[in-house]
Design goal:
CATH class: Alpha Beta
CATH topology: Alpha-Beta Plaits
Number of helices: 3
Number of domains: 1
Length: 101
């Protein structure tokens, strides 16, 4: 069994005029809800320079922690707000290689 965190990557496609509103919504949710969830380690928001997408990179202790997050009532209430601004795909994975300078 691995002790490495699982990585959740969400790719959100957004109209460039709505990118700032999407980022504000995502940041608020991380600061208010996500940080309170068990198994959460870290989150990063990455904005495309062309304004057409945002990536949420987050690390979780286990795949079960991700599932608990997805079923949390606060998160379920938040997902429709995202869909008003963007479409998104999710990838759950693990680090298989990392190199640093």
């Amino acid at each position: 069994m691995t002790t490495e965190p699982v990585i959740l990557i969400n790719l959100l496609k957004v109209e460039p005029s709505k990118q700032a509103a999407l980022i504000a919504l995502l940041k608020h949710n991380i600061e208010i809800v996500v940080i309170t969830l068990g198994g959460w380690i870290t989150s990063r928001l990455i904005a495309a320079k062309d304004g057409a997408s945002v990536i949420i990179y987050s690390e979780w202790e286990t795949p079960a922690a991700v599932e608990v997050m997805r079923t949390d009532p606060r998160m379920k209430a938040y997902f429709p707000q995202i869909l008003e601004l963007a479409s998104f795909d999710s990838i759950l994975g693990e680090t298989i290689f990392s190199d640093n300078r």
